[in-house]
Structure formats: structure tokens, C-alpha cells
Amino acid sequence: MDKLDRFIKLAKAGEGTYGVVYKAKNKITGKNVALKKIKLEKFYNKGDSEGVPATAIREIALLKGLRHSSIIELLDVMQSTDKLYLVFEYLDLDLKRYLDNSKHQMEKELLRSYMKQLTEALAYMHSHRILHRDLKPQNLLVDKEGHIKLADFGLSRSFSLPTRTYTHEVVTMWYRAPELLLGSKLYCTGIDIWSLGCIMAEMLIKRAIFPGDSEIDQLYKIFKVMGTPTEDTWEGVSQFPDYKPSFPIWHPIQLRDVINFHNQEEEDFIKTMLMYDPSKRKTAKELLKSNYLKTAKLTAPEMEAFPRDETESE
């Protein structure tokens, strides 16, 4: 496979849902790339087109149509007999590892800058009628200059208005919107906005705000902070397939009791995303008009959080 010979594998960078990701260098340009290797043989006879997993086909199709500075760029697709390689631009770290490695609470201007970039990426995607459906810190990539980019589009899909029914078994549980946890099959861009709110909270407290270990525990973790939803607080909630009148009653607490905000602006901003009723959550486009994001500028992250690059000398 001639095209693959252009790349030298430097190190294993991680494992995705359906493949291994390597850091590699393009011999011709000298630039680092991320190579996602997908073994095809295990997908044969499973109804996938020519052994290529549906998630890979979906990711390729969607990314080929997206061009945005805060969305990972798919540079090339290469196929051999039993493997498919996706070539992506390379970023140093995912947000989860960055938060794990950093010593302090995220600096307020870096948080603002990251939120602006992520909101812009979502506004762009949603305007192209694409839902990400798996936003979490592991799927956001950061570099030393202060950029953050959406990655891993394996669960993403196009949507149409009015929305059709989709599977509610999407989005990693800790970032899953309450309407999904309650079994709704009709959902729209609000599920990505809820995930974004959870990610913002995690950037402030350096751990997941709602770390459930099952669907019901996940709901209860949310209820304990936001109060058990009722028809008064969320019209129509009792109509969801998995809603139970026997849910324990919790009263809402102040978000500032759970999250150590730098200022009131941050608290106000996150509250517009973490709202029960998806129709009341701000859209990405509306969020971009907020005062909180208006003053955002590219801000360098904490350098100590980035591992020393062992592969550069190879």
C-alpha cells in the first residue's frame, strides 16, 4: 500500500471504538498525523458494507463534508485488503488527559476560550444538521497553542426537521441528557448542548459532575443536584417511556455548591445548558451571542499538563 509508506509510526496514541490510533509522521511534509487503523476482517459477515464498520463509514462521510477550525480534519482515507486507515490532523492530547495531568483548576480565560471554540464547532455542525451524539472530554483534542477540536464522529448522524425517532442508546452515560435517560427517541441538538454543559462543569471541577454507574444511578445523580423533575418544572416529563411516578423526590441545590465557579458569568452560562427541558436549553447559535463568550480569546493552556514529546527525537 504505497500511500501508507509515506508515514512512520511513532507511538500508539490510544484505542477508539473500532480501531487503534497511532501518532505518525509524514515523511514528505515532516508533519505529525494521527493514524486510525481499523481491522476489517472482524466486521465481515456482520452485515457491514464490505467489512467496513458502519461507524467508520458514517465518520468518513460526515467528516468529508465538514470544514471548521474546531473540528478535527480528516486528511486521507487508505485501504488495504484487511485494514482501513483514516489519517487525521494530530493534536497533542485529549481533554480528559489534560485535566488529569493539570495541577490546578482551569484558568478562567482558558475555559472561556475552550467554550467559545466548542460552541462555534457545535453551531457549525448543527447548522449543517449533524448531531455529534458522543461529546465527552476523551473526544475533544487540545494542543499547546490553546486550540480545542471535536473528534470521534463514529456516533454522529444527520438529522432532519421535524426530528425522526433515533436510538436513545447514544452518548457516554455521564454526559447523556436526561431526555435520553428517560427513554425519549425524539431528540435534537439539545443532547449535544447538555453534554457541553457537563464538560464545562468537568473543566471547572476536574471530574465528572454526574458520574453514574447505571442509567438509573445516572438519573439520580442528576436529580440530586437539579431536583427531581415534575410536570411543573419540565412539561411532558411524565410521558417519557422510562419516567416513574415513584422516583425519589430531591429538591434542587445551587450549582455553586457543587462547582467552584470563578465568577457569576460562568454560572449563568452553564445554567443555560444544564436545563431539564431541551426546548429551553440555549442552542449553540444562541450561546454564541452571550456576553460570556464575547470576550473569549485564544489562551495558552498549562504546559506542564502536556507530556514531554519522546517521539520527536526518533
List its salient traits.
314 residues, alpha+beta, five-stranded antiparallel sheet, 9 helices, 16% strand, globular, cyclin-dependent kinase, Prot_kinase_dom, nucleotide-binding, cyclin-dependent protein serine/threonine kinase activity, EC 2.7.11.22
Explained architecture:
- Its EC number is 2.7.11.22.
- GO terms for molecular function: ATP binding; cyclin binding; cyclin-dependent protein serine/threonine kinase activity.
- InterPro entries: CDK, Kinase-like_dom_sf, Prot_kinase_dom, Ser/Thr_kinase_AS.
- One of its GO terms (cellular component) is cyclin-dependent protein kinase holoenzyme complex.
- The structure is a single chain.
- Helix content is 27%, strand content 16%.
- The chain has nine helices and ten strands.
- The chain has helices spanning 54-64, 95-101, 108-127, 178-181, 190-205, 215-226, 264-271, 284-287, 291-294; strands at residues 7-15, 20-26, 32-39, 74-79, 83-89, 93-94, 130-131, 140-142, 148-150, 157-158.
- A five-stranded antiparallel β-sheet has the order 1-2-3-5-4, with helices on one face. It has a three-stranded antiparallel β-sheet with strand order 6-8-9. It has a two-stranded antiparallel sheet with strand order 7-10.
Report the structural category: alpha+beta
Query: How many individual β-strands?
Result: 10
Radius of gyration: 20 Å
Task: Please work out how many helical segments DSSP would assign.
Answer: 9
pLDDT averaged residue by residue: 88
Overall helicity: 25-40%
Query: Major sheet, described briefly?
Result: 5 strands, antiparallel
Output the helix-strand order. Answer: EEEHEEEHHEEEEHHHHHH
**What would the principal axes of the Cα set say about the shape?**
globular
Q: What is the strand content?
A: 15-25%
- As residue ranges, the low-confidence spans are 161-166
Biggest sheet: strand arrangement: 1-2-3-5-4
Distance between the termini: 23 Å
